[in-house]
Design goal:
Elements: E1 7-11, E2 17-18, E3 21-22, H1 26-36, E4 39-44, H2 51-59, E5 70-72, H3 73-84, E6 90-94, H4 97-105, E7 109-110, E8 117-120, H5 128-139, E9 143-146, E10 152-155, E11 158-161, H6 163-174, E12 179-180, H7 187-196, E13 203-207, H8 210-219, E14 223-227, E15 242-244, H9 247-256
Parallel strand pairs: 1-4, 1-13, 4-5, 6-7, 6-8, 8-9, 9-12, 13-14, 14-15
Antiparallel strand pairs: 2-3, 10-11
Bound molecules: magnesium ion.
Magnesium ion (MG) is lined by residues 11, 13-15, 207-209.
Length: 264
C-alpha cells in the first residue's frame, strides 16, 4: 500500500500536535514528503481557525506549509452550501471566527434575521442566548448544518466538549436532523483531494480517530492509516489498513518502502 502511495491527507489534532506541542515526527513530515514526491494536504474538523491561522500555529512549531495545503471543515461546509443556496443567503452561525470567515468568503451573510440555515461548529464563547436563537431559527424553518459532530476534542488536560456536544443541545431541543459535513462524512476529504489534484485510489488518510478519520477515509474510497496515541472509542467494523505509533514511525516506513520513482 505504501509503495503505491501518491498522496496523504493528514489530520492535525492528535497527529501533528496536541495543544501547542508538536508530536514525534511532525517537524520532519513536510520535508520528507516533499523529498519522496508525495502530495499532501492537512485536513481538520476544527472549525475555530482559518487556514491562515492554522498555518501560523504550525509555523510556531517549526512546521512550514502554505495555507492552501490546509482544508478545514468550515471551507468544506461553505463549499456544500454554495451547491444548494444562492450567494447572499442569511445564515445564523454558532461558531467561531474560522467558520464566520469561511461563510462570508463564500458569499453568505451571517445574520440572525430570517436565516435559511443554522450552521454549527465549535464555539467556545457559546451562550444560552445564542443557543436559543439557533433553536428559534430552526423552529421558523432554517435547516441545520454542522461542520462536524466530534463529541470531544483532545487537549493537554484530557478531552473538552466538541462541536458534536453543542450540536446535540440544538438537536435535543428542536428534534431537527442535522447535515454533517466534516469527518466521518467524506466531503471534507473530497474537497482536499480536489485541491491537490489527487484521486482517492492513490491516497491515504492519516488520523488518530477510528470513528472520524478512518471512517471518512473509507467513505472517500482511500486507504487509511491510524496513528495511535489518543485513546478513542472503539468502533465496530472500522479498521485501518495500517497502524503506526506516530508520524515518525510512518515516515520510517515510507522511507523504507522505496516509493516508485514515477511518483517523484
Ligand atoms: Mg485527530
Amino acid at each position: 500500500m505504501l509503495r503505491g502511495l501518491r498522496a496523504l491527507l493528514i489530520d492535525m489534532d492528535g497527529v501533528v500536535y496536541r495543544g501547542d506541542e508538536p508530536l514525534p515526527g511532525a517537524q520532519d513530515l513536510v520535508p520528507t514528503l516533499q523529498r519522496l514526491g508525495i502530495r499532501f494536504c492537512f485536513v481538520t474538523n476544527n472549525a475555530t481557525l482559518t487556514p491562515q491561522q492554522f498555518q501560523a500555529k504550525l509555523a510556531n512549531m517549526a512546521i512550514k506549509v502554505d495555507a492552501d495545503r490546509i482544508v478545514t471543515s468550515p471551507e468544506a461546509t461553505a463549499h456544500y452550501l454554495q451547491g444548494i443556496a444562492e450567494p447572499g443567503t442569511p445564515v445564523l452561525v454558532v461558531g467561531e471566527h474560522g467558520l464566520v470567515h469561511a461563510l462570508e468568503e463564500a458569499g453568505f451573510v451571517v445574520s440572525r434575521n430570517q436565516p435559511a440555515f443554522v450552521v454549527v461548529g465549535l464555539d467556545r464563547q457559546l451562550t444560552y442566548e445564542r443557543l436559543a436563537a439557533a433553536c428559534l431559527a430552526i423552529q421558523d424553518g432554517a435547516q441545520l448544518v454542522a461542520t462536524n459532530a466530534d463529541p470531544a476534542i483532545p487537549v493537554p488536560q484530557g478531552m473538552f466538549p466538541g462541536a458534536g456536544a453543542l450540536l446535540a443541545a440544538i438537536v435535543t431541543a428542536t428534534g431537527a436532523t442535522p447535515t454533517i459535513i466534516g469527518k466521518p462524512a467524506p466531503t471534507l476529504l473530497q474537497v482536499a483531494l480536489e485541491r491537490i489534484g489527487s484521486r482517492p485510489e492513490e491516497a491515504a488518510m492519516v488520523g488518530d480517530q477510528l470513528g472520524t478519520d478512518i471512517a471518512a477515509g473509507r467513505a472517500a474510497g482511500m486507504s487509511t492509516i491510524l496513528v495511535e496515541g489518543t485513546p478513542g472509542r472503539p468502533v465496530p467494523g472500522v479498521e485501518p489498513d495500517l497502524q503506526v505509533r506516530n508520524l515518525a514511525h510512518l515516515l520510517e516506513l515510507l522511507l523504507a518502502a522505496e516509493i516508485e520513482p514515477s511518483s517523484r
